[in-house]
Amino acid sequence: MLAKLVDVTVLRHKVLSQNVANVNTPGYHKLDVSFDDQLNKHLQMHGDQGVANLQPTVVEDTTTPGRIDGNNVDIDREMMRLNKNTLLNNAYLQIVSTKTAMMRRAISGQ
What we know:
Strand order of the largest sheet: 1-2
Distance between the termini: 27 Å
Number of strands: 2
Shape: elongated
Structural class: mainly alpha
Order of helices and strands: HEHEH
Largest sheet: 2 strands, antiparallel
Strand content: 5-15%
Number of domains: 1
Radius of gyration: 18 Å
């Protein structure tokens, strides 16, 4: 499950970076990664079995009001989301690293 969460944060980082890069593109609608609700429903119904088979989807946000030029990217909000996603990614990677180190110690008999 951790590997899937890392993959989702990597995809989300790419999508958020694309939103930031297009902040001044007329008519651009921001994109988002849909995964959290899907994961919650799956965990409630099946536990962590089969989480690796879940796939995140990139969706266009057309509900957020846009500026006069049709662009709906709020740079402050996107930067906040990018920072939050980076923290989540770092936390997931730290957990994976810790678990890997624990397994290495167990295998080597320390």
